[in-house]
Amino acid sequence: MRDISVSEITNAVKKLCIDANYTLSSDMEEAICNAKNQEKSGLGKQIFGQLEENLRIAKEENIPICQDTGMAVFFINVGQEAHIVGGSISDAVNEGVRLGYTEGYLRKSVVGDPLLRVNTGDNTPAVIHYDIVPGDNIEITIAPKGFGSENMSKIYMLKPADGEEGVKNAIVQAVKDAGPNACPPMVVGVGIGGTFEKCALLAKKALTRKVGEHSNIPYVKEMEEEVLGRINKTGIGPGGLGGTVTALAVNINTYATHIAGLPVAVNICCHVNRHRSITI
Ligand code: SF4
């Protein structure tokens, strides 16, 4: 067993909150830069230029890339040989969010109850997904999620007979329905299979995969490429103002499912697709 103190977790989370909101990961930056060259519309190219400038200013001046600094979503892999000392891991993560969002001057966007809607004032609680894995490390991934694009996400409980074509059509339809509201160019996370909640988690996790990295399942990789092509033919374009680059990537995760079902979740992210990881 290896001892890991909760204060280490809190400090790491605080830093992740700030870093993820001030700078995009290099794969996202490169994707935006490459997309500017691919974009055929003049106005679209101009918008990509503005997105690049926005990223540069945020990085140089240590300010958030977007005013919506998101709800703090975490994927945490806890090694089964890790021994957390000094308190609860969830409390440690929430304390890191509280400190990060306060000291980083990040907008506090969380209400404590979905209907009473009183802001908690510190962006807690976070949404935390745990996995128990082999080893004695703790790997923490943060993905702060803006709700312009979150609100455009969809779940479809398709029939097995709908097949691959039905899945592809559902993904493209979700993007068309989202249109400009999801702050394109988007990254489209897709979960296929599992149960109702499992496919949503697969889709959310797919957004943390590097842009440009494909599924290692050959037919899924082909689907990712084909659906991206279809999405970029919709004409929605950067900023929703028309153009040839509506999405930067389609990342699909799959899982086993029941003989009677074909669940599909489409979790849409805007061009501010933030994610950062650290291993303790
Ligand atoms: S959807 Fe993304 S770009 Fe749009 S306001 Fe929210 S975080 Fe910002």
Oligomer: single chain
Uncertain stretches of 5 or more adjacent residues: none
Shape: globular
Helix content: 25-40%
In total, the number of strands is: 10
Structure characterization notes:
By secondary structure, the chain is an alpha/beta fold. The protein folds into two domains: 2-20 and 65-144, 2-Layer Sandwich (Dihydrodipicolinate Reductase, domain 2), CATH 3.30.360; 147-273. The protein has eight helices and ten strands. The strands form three sheets. Strands 4-2-5-10 form a four-stranded mixed beta sheet, with helices on one face. It has a four-stranded mixed beta sheet with strand order 6-9-7-8. The protein has a two-stranded parallel sheet with strand order 1-3. 42% of the residues are buried.
Can you give me a brief rundown of this structure?
The protein is an alpha/beta fold and 280 residues long. The chain folds into 2 domains: 2-20 and 65-144, Dihydrodipicolinate Reductase, domain 2 (2-Layer Sandwich), CATH 3.30.360; 147-273.
Write the layout of secondary structure elements.
Layout: E1 2-5, H1 6-22, H2 26-38, H3 42-61, E2 73-79, E3 82-85, H4 89-103, E4 127-133, E5 138-142, H5 147-150, E6 154-158, H6 163-178, E7 186-194, H7 196-206, H8 218-231, E8 247-257, E9 262-269, E10 276-279
Parallel strand pairs: 1-3, 2-4, 7-8
Antiparallel strand pairs: 2-5, 5-10, 6-9, 7-9
Helix pairs in contact: 1-4, 2-3, 6-8
Bound molecules: iron/sulfur cluster.
Iron/sulfur cluster is lined by residues 66, 68, 146, 148-149, 183, 270, 272.
